[in-house]
Amino acid sequence: MASFTPFSLLFLLLLQYPFLSLSSNSEGNALHALRSRLSDPNNVLQSWDPTLVNPCTWFHVTCNSNNQVIRLDLGNSNISGILGPELGQLHHLQYLELYRNELSGKIPEELGKLKNLISMDLYGNKLEGRIPKSFGKLKSLKFLLNDNKLSGTIPRELTHLKNLKVFDVSNNDLCGTIPVDGNFGSFPQKSFENNRLNGPELKGLVPYDFGC
Amino acid sequence: MAQKIVFIFLLVLIIVKLSSVASEKSEANALLKWKASLDNQSQVVLSSWKNGTSPCTTWTGIQCDTSNSVTAINLENNLLKGTLHALHFSSLPNLLTFDIYNNSFHGIIPPQIGNMSKISRLNFSSNPFYGSIPQEMWTLTSLRSLDLSYCSYLTGPISASIANLTNLTYLDLGGFNLNCSIPPGIGKLNNLVLLDFQYSNLFGSIPREIGMLSKLEHLDLTENTLTGNIPSTIANLSRLNILLLPNNTLSGPIPPPLWNMSNLIWLWLYSNHLSGTIPTSVGNLVNLESLRVDDNQLYGSIPSTIGNMTKLTEISLCFNSFSKSIPASIGSLINLETLCLQTNSLSGSIPDTIGNLKRLSDLELSTNMLSGNIPQAINNLTNMYNFVVAKNNLNGHLPPQICLGGSLEYLNAQSNHFTGSVPSSLKNCSSIVMITLQDNHLEGDISQDFGVYPNLSYIDVSNNQFYGQISPNWGKCDSLQNFIIAKNNISGGIPPQIAEATNLGKLHLFSNQLTGNIPKELGKLKNLVELKIANNHLSGKIPSEIGLLQALTRLHLGGNDLIGSIPRQVVQLPNLLELNLSNNKLDGSIPSDFKTLQPLYSLDLSGNLLNGAIPRVLGEVKHLQCLNLSHNNLSGNIPSSFDGMSALNSINISYNQLDGPLPDNKAFLHASIESLKNNKGLCGNVTGLVPCPSSSPSRKSHKVVLLVLLLIFGVLALALSVISISVYILCIKARKKEDPAKEMQPEELFSIWSRDGKMTFKTIMEATNNFDDKYLIEIGGQGSVYRAELPGMVVAVKKL
């Protein structure tokens, strides 16, 4: 049959399979996918070499003794772009520090899969859309700080987070009422200021999405 | 009679000629009409398509047959943009080839393509068509070649009617969302030579019917979510050269008949869940050039028959559980360029025969249990590019001539038992990118054994017995990001020239014998993320220029002889996670430049001569988990701001001059006496600590003053409320006659509730006349709801 010599096939294949293929480390691939959505004028991600066996030598990435990513420290890095669903694959992540950048778009729901997350600092970006309900599954979460363009209501699921110590959603565009159950009873007023919130939830009388 | 026949013959000829001219004209018109629907750029590209000229002679990309009817449209790679909607396919009845590969044709693939009744080769690849493949596609039974690959917005599914296209020899539907399973009807396409469904989001299993494609030479199912076993019928494909199944979720063993497919040239099964062993029959694949089974669950030994596959250029068995030794027959694979055996359970030594592999450039043996020496013969391999033997039990020396060919980029030998010196060919190895030799027993003078490397990005030789001084030449390594020479016997000072390597991110020189000052020039390293120079003999002050390192996350200067005070610029570093200045001779007080939101989680200032109080702002650093201030001269109380440090879980303030109560914080209250002892007057509810007195003499006078103030305030408050209530009652009585429905902002209501509960209660009682039925709105399951007219708004009040 015409034209299917091994050489032409090889050529076709070489186009698709470069010499050093991506490592089979799923966390490295997830971070590589994160990087592909970001614009990085300060080149803080210069060390993120996806051909390495794992991302543990990459700057701003900290691993535990099993070479699993536990910290991602990209605060104050002048990065812009959007966050993708791949962040949800960093199953051992404890600290997600992306504060004070120019990140836009929505907060991916997949962040709700990060069972080990202790701190999520997304403040000082341009993130929009709702606070995902899936955050109610982040049982280990202690710190949740936001200062963005988030809208919609504060999901009631967050009142189940027993470990949540600091919750600051000031300076957003949130509406509805402020939950009062669980740890929400102890958060100070200033955690909610500069939104379009309608005071604390009055169960049965004022619906949770009042004013939305 | 003969004349009549000639006349009729001529007439027929003329009619045929006229109709062919007419049809040629209608074909031209159809093409021009289509051209007119495309964008401006396309008009330029197709400028040769002019009214009045013949498509068959001058038009770009058009071919005709002997009767001047258009048979081929070849417009690949032309930056054309538009749709196919205006193309009247019926007007091109003789079209055999339609190739618009790599343009910007968008919109749906119109069902009218079904009118191309003679079409043989259809290539729409790499266009942004969207929508699903029209049903009419599966009626084009004359098709021999169909390529819709990488039309990224196109969707499937593949209809079962694909079985109709029995003339197909080439079928490529890869690179878009087919989102279906492979129909068993595919087995009917018995003329197929190439079948490509890569990156198509296929699920389900590979149908057994695939074995019916007796002419198949190339099968690519890369990157889908195919499950189940590889069907053994695949072995029936006796002409198969290329079998690509990587990045799926295929499971079960590799079917034994597969090892008889002696026409295979490329066999890629990597990144699946395949299990089982590789039998000796693997040696049958004498034509194989690339074997990749990495990242599966294969086990057992590597058969020595692999030596029969002498055409192999690449063999990858890594990330499996292969055991026993590397067979010596590997030396027969004289064409081998890439050998990947890393991350298995291989043992024994590296066979000497590896020295026969003259073309070997990529050798990955790391993370196994290999022992013995590296064969001497490796010194003769001049094409070495990637030499990775890390994490084994290897001993002896590193091959001195490893960079002989001048192409070595990666040298990874960490975590073995290597002795001797760094390979001598490394000194002038300008190609090198990464050197990792840590955790061995290597020795030598680092100022002699290394050179200047323009491409070196990562060097780690920690935990060896290197000595000598750090050469200022390292500053000339423009690409250097990681410079790690910890845990050796390095002496001399830190050369300020190292700051010329402005890409430095990690500078780790801890646990050596370094002396002298910390050069202030280090402040120039804008990209420095980690500076770890603990456990040396560094002296002098901490330069304030360290405060310029905006990217710094970890600063470890502990265990040196540093003097002076802690520069406030260091505390102000905005991205600092860990600060360890322990065991130096630092004095002065702890700076109060901490910020609430700084990410600092570990602070160790222990073992210094620090005095003064613990700054209040330190208690506001939300993320602080570990705090060690022990063995200093700190005095005063622990600030009450420490009460709220919810992240704190480990503290040590022992051996200071602190007094006062412990803060109301679980890290302090659960601390052992070892972390609190030897202070001046600390008190608290911890075993071994003095309990705090209920009222101390100095506080008694404070308490009396407070009491008096409270009394006065109370009286004033009472008077105010009496006056206000009367005013309110008067107002209500007046307002009942006015319009009561003035809307108060919800925020105002909220502020009344939180500020002045007592006031509002009295007001509500007034407004509902002590919950008179007159004001009852409804009775619910948990109480009654009343209507209350407060000043400024009407509210519903639920009485439980």
From TrEMBL, chain A:
SUPFAM superfamilies: L domain-like. Pfam families: LRR_14, LRRNT_2. Residues 24-64 form the Leucine-rich repeat-containing N-terminal plant-type domain. Keywords: Leucine-rich repeat, Repeat, Signal. Residues 72-169 form the Disease resistance R13L4/SHOC-2-like LRR domain. Residues 1-23 form the signal peptide. This is Leucine-rich repeat protein 2.
Automatic annotation (TrEMBL), chain B:
Keywords: Leucine-rich repeat, Membrane, Repeat, Signal, Transmembrane, Transmembrane helix. Residues 139-242 form the Disease resistance R13L4/SHOC-2-like LRR domain. The chain crosses the membrane at residues 704-732. InterPro entries: At_inactive_RLKs (IPR050994), Leu-rich_rpt (IPR001611), Leu-rich_rpt_typical-subtyp (IPR003591), LRR_dom_sf (IPR032675), LRR_N_plant-typ (IPR013210), LRR_R13L4/SHOC2-like (IPR055414). Residues 26-65 form the Leucine-rich repeat-containing N-terminal plant-type domain. Residues 1-23 form the signal peptide. This is Leucine-rich repeat-containing N-terminal plant-type domain-containing protein. It holds the Pfam family LRR_8. SUPFAM superfamilies: L domain-like (SSF52058), RNI-like (SSF52047). The keyword Transmembrane helix applies. The keyword Protein transport does not apply. It comes from the Eukaryota. The lineage of its organism: Eukaryota, Viridiplantae, Streptophyta, Embryophyta, Tracheophyta.
